[in-house]
Amino acid sequence: GKDGKFHEAMYNTFCQNRHHPTMNDMQGADDGQYHTYTTDWRTTLKKLPEVRDAQVVEHVGYHWIHDKEVPFADYLGNPLKKHGPDDYSVYWGAKATHWIDGKKVAENRLFVPAMAAQLNLGIWLPDWAGPADWQTSQVSFANVKIWQFDDPGDVRGVLVEDLKDNFDQEGKEVR
């Protein structure tokens, strides 16, 4: 919850400096028991028929817009896939759908990243930071599982040099 409203969950998608938060009822999952939270994060390829070879550069197997005349909203900084001469699609985040205990509670369709990112689970302070209206709050997580759908819009191996695991194989925090 945000603003100390623990009966609401915020599902937030970020793509560059744009984000789409949704606040949703926790469906009673704020009862101190374990619940199953599921997010399906899906990607796709979106055709960019106006983009030409002279407007892109290739780097680490992907193509990147380097012409400021191409509207940023068309690609949101995501890499492109080249199909042939002057034929490109952008790797695009299609949607992130969220469930609690098998019941759909939310869906983000705006600013969904196509590149893997950090997963953050936790309790929000009343605002981005600052004092909270409560003394103690606790949340526990168990059995976090992540798997790939291998969607056509999945981007792999980009901007990962500084991403490190926070926990070892036994679940102990790495410092």
- Could you describe the largest sheet, including whether it forms a barrel? 4 strands, antiparallel
Mean pLDDT metric: 85
Low-confidence stretches: none
Contiguous helical run count: 0
Please give the radius of gyration in angstroms: 19 Å
Shape: elongated
Task: Please count the beta strands (DSSP E, at least 2 residues each).
Answer: 8
Terminal CA distance reads 27 Å
**Structural class per helix/strand content?**
mainly beta
Percent of residues in helices comes to under 10%
Order of helices and strands: EEEEEEEE
Strand content: 25-35%
What does this protein look like?
- It is built from no helices and 8 strands.
- It is mainly β and 175 residues long.
- Strands 3, 6, 7 and 8 form a 4-stranded antiparallel β-sheet that branches. Strands 1-2 form a two-stranded antiparallel sheet.
- It is elongated.
- The two termini are 27 Å apart.
- The mean pLDDT is 85.
What's the quick description here?
The chain has 175 residues and is mainly β. The chain has strands spanning 8-15, 18-25, 37-47, 56-59, 62-65, 80-84, 87-100, 103-108.
Q: How does the SSE layout of this entry go?
A:
Layout: E1 8-15, E2 18-25, E3 37-47, E4 56-59, E5 62-65, E6 80-84, E7 87-100, E8 103-108
Antiparallel strand pairs: 1-2, 3-7, 4-5, 6-7, 7-8
Looking at this protein, list some descriptive labels.
175 residues; mainly beta; four-stranded antiparallel beta sheet; elongated
